[in-house]
Design a protein that fits this description.
Blueprint lengths: L1 E5 L2 E3 L5 E8 L8 E6 L6 E6 L5 E3 L7 E6 L4 E6 L8 E7 L4 E2 L3 E5 L2
Parallel strand pairs: 2-11
Antiparallel strand pairs: 1-3, 3-8, 4-5, 4-9, 5-6, 7-8, 9-10, 9-11
């Protein structure tokens, strides 16, 4: 199982980013996926979850601003992040829960 994230960067408050996670080594369409983040000095936290059939769940702190989606034809899960705030600054990790697999992470920095 391999997960490779991309799309992080530096953005101003109120801006947007889209993260991507390319998955390989398992039958992607059959399994749930999730995004987590870890800010300096804080524990890793769940940001968003998507089931194999597209049902979603979000942390309260990102509800209404972030959208998780998946493209099973591309074996990719996305995280669209809008109205970004400085407190969204963290390393964002893709996760395949049922395999205990994690990507290397992508840095998101929200700052003016």
């Amino acid at each position: 199982v391999q997960l490779v994230e991309s799309g992080g960067g530096l953005v101003q408050p109120g801006g947007s980013l889209r993260l991507s996670c390319a998955a390989s080594g398992f039958s992607f369409r059959s399994y749930p996926m999730s995004w987590h983040r870890q800010a300096p000095g804080k524990e890793r936290e769940l940001v968003a979850f998507i089931s194999s059939d597209g049902m979603t769940h979000y942390a309260d702190s990102v509800k209404g601003r972030f959208t998780i989606s998946r493209d099973n034809a591309k074996n990719t899960v996305y995280l669209q992040m809008n109205s970004l705030k400085p407190e969204d600054t963290a390393v964002y990790h893709c996760n395949a829960p049922q395999f205990g697999a994690w990507g290397q992470g992508t840095q998101v920095t929200v700052s003016s």
